[in-house]
Design goal:
With 290 residues, the chain is of the alpha+beta class. It has seven helices and nine strands; from the N terminus they run E-H-E-E-H-H-H-E-E-H-E-H-E-H-E-E. The protein is globular, with a radius of gyration of 33 Å. The relative contact order is 0.08.
Length: 290
């Protein structure tokens, strides 16, 4: 049975949809593989659905074991004497040549396997060639070429501009039709960002920091985050304490940190591990450790 890939708001919802598609009524009847865990969006951006792969488990009865006819089976002619005992001259069971050899010579079959194992050539580990790091100025054209080809592949009219600023590659994709590359809640632009970093890593064996903006989406998002951060800071200055934000990317966390740095009486720090790393905003009088 082939796997069925289903997307849903949560893994349970996706599994239930897959069960309906496969006609399964019990989870014991299926095998499940979670491809992607769901993530909540922030300000309507950046969320992603859960993706699971489901297939039916094989439903088959137990197979009967086949009996091999050998020297001990009653149906063989000449294997037993008239008295029902083996006709080996001693009244005992006959030994097959392989078993007798194993007892007398230490196991011929095992020695054969051992000889094969000893005679097999040992594989030498492949040594990976180390390539020198590529300068960031040489990495930028790789990003520009990839994004330009992607715009053409989408069949859209747009232009790509790439520059280097403070050891960061900044790529802007502009054009009236490039809004289609943003996707719902920025899901497509996030995928393009990851693809760009992967291409950069494979072609140059280096990976500089990359900031991607398509159709002005990134700038609008940064402005929305800055407004939201300042609203939280105003609340902290009035009530005190601290506020824990939802997990977000490194670029979004930087916007929050920059907003906190411009205000007095409040501090910010990050906690957790990526991709679940988040920002904590705390009033200056809070005793929480950074």
């Amino acid at each position: 049975m082939e796997w069925v890939e289903v997307r849903g708001k949560s893994a349970d919802i996706a599994i239930e949809a897959a069960m309906k598609e496969l006609g399964a009524s019990d989870r014991e009847q299926i095998d499940v593989e979670v491809i992607q865990e769901p993530e909540k969006g922030f300000l309507g951006f950046g969320g992603q659905d859960a993706i699971v792969k489901v297939k039916l488990r094989p439903q088959g009865g137990r197979k009967r074991r086949r009996r091999r006819k050998g020297s001990g089976d009653r149906g063989n002619d000449g294997d037993r004497s008239q008295g029902g005992k083996p006709d080996n001259g001693r009244g005992g069971r006959t030994q097959t040549p392989s078993k007798a050899a194993e007892r007398q010579g230490g196991g011929r079959s095992q020695n054969k396997r051992g000889d094969r194992r000893d005679s097999a050539p040992t594989k030498q580990p492949r040594q990976r060639e180390e390539k020198p790091d590529v300068d960031i100025e040489e990495q930028a054209p790789v990003v520009e070429e990839f994004l330009s080809g992607l715009v053409s592949a989408f069949g859209l009219e747009g232009s790509v501009s790439v520059r280097v600023d403070d050891e960061v590659i900044i790529a802007d994709v502009t054009g009236p039709q490039t809004e289609a590359m943003v996707g719902p809640r920025g899901s497509t632009i996030e995928a393009i960002h990851e693809l760009s970093k992967t291409v950069l890593q494979r072609q140059t064996q280096s990976s500089a920091r990359l900031r991607l903006d398509i159709a002005g989406y990134g700038e609008r998002r940064r402005q929305a985050l800055a407004i939201y951060a300042n609203q939280l800071i105003d609340q902290l200055l009035e009530d005190g304490g601290e506020v824990t934000l939802e997990p977000m990317s490194a670029g979004d966390r930087k916007v929050i940190h920059d907003a906190a740095a411009e205000r007095t009486g409040v501090r910010s720090y990050s906690e957790g591990q990526s991709p679940q790393r988040y920002v904590v905003l705390a009033a200056a009088g809070s005793d929480e450790e950074e």
